[in-house]
Specification:
- The model has no long low-confidence stretch (mean pLDDT about 95).
- It is elongated, with a radius of gyration of 23 Å.
- Helices cover about 30% and strands about 30% of the residues.
- The longest helix has 13 residues.
- It contains 10 helices and 14 strands.
- The strands form 3 sheets. Strands 10-9-8-11-12-14-13 form a 7-stranded mixed sheet, sandwiched between helices.
- The structure holds S-adenosylmethionine.
- S-adenosylmethionine binds next to α4 and α6.
- It comes from Pseudacidovorax intermedius.
- This is Ribosomal protein L11 methyltransferase.
Length: about 300
Amino acid sequence: MFELRLLAPEDRVEVVGDALDALDALSVSVEDADAHTEAEQALFGEPGMPPPREGWQRSRVVALFDTRAKADEAAALLQAQDFFEGCSLAGIAEVPEQDWVRLTQSQFAPVEITESFWIVPTWHEPPAQAVQVIRLDPGLAFGTGTHPTTRMCLRWIATQPADVLGSRVLDYGCGSGILAIGAAKFGATEIDAVDIDEAAVESTRLNADANAVELSPGLPERAQGEYDTVLANILATPLKVLAPLLCAHVRPGGHLVLAGILSRQADELKEAYAPWIALEVADTEDGWILMTGRRAA
Ligand SMILES: C[S@@+](CC[C@H](N)C(=O)[O-])C[C@H]1O[C@@H](n2cnc3c(N)ncnc32)[C@H](O)[C@@H]1O
């Protein structure tokens, strides 16, 4: 394989990408050419908010070709086009052969939640000290245990007395289903796991089967009635909008566990939930916090 590398300003990326597709590139990837420099500009916004810009000011475009001749030809043809003005050729290089499966797998090691509770990909053996294990491979849905927000929720689940987690649990925004599976491993027996993303619902179903636990995955309408514990690892903005709905699902005396919140957002979350549940910061990791609260009995 051969990589053709180009630099393109924001307004040329699309046309250059389309041209590379038309020139038989096997793949085209676009990255921020200023990443990890002073000139880097964040492009993401919270859900429901527009991104600050449509694209990076300078992009690194990398196209993969199966022969050197095709990469050379594509470079020559692109450089002859009017739309290439402002773009530049950064080089053509052979891509060394890699065992991509092994490389990807090597990036996902077992994740420790507590000394005896681990998330373990299927290509690893569980560590000797693991008493409880969730088997989970990276897939289409968020939640492999590598993110601090997921880890804090799981740590909360694993360290509560059984009567706190309870038997009826709702995982709202279930992604891979990892929190729902964790709840099942720690004694919950009636678990609804819901998400707005159909792929997450399917992923939860498959991961529940792989872990031999029973869950009811579905779209948000599946959440019905009151639960002993409601878990929601989303982001601050949707969590604020969802406050009345999530609190209504917590039974009197039950617990609410929220993640996806940055430390500086603690006060806004407390305020949004104050009419129903008094939230406190229960855990913190890498600038993220876990907020929990109990509905009055
Ligand atoms: C950060 S992931 C959390 C996944 C998993 N629960 C975990 O802890 O790792 C957030 C999930 O919430 C879902 N989500 C976002 N907004 C939602 C909403 N309003 N209602 C239900 N699910 C939502 C997303 O599709 C995504 O799968």
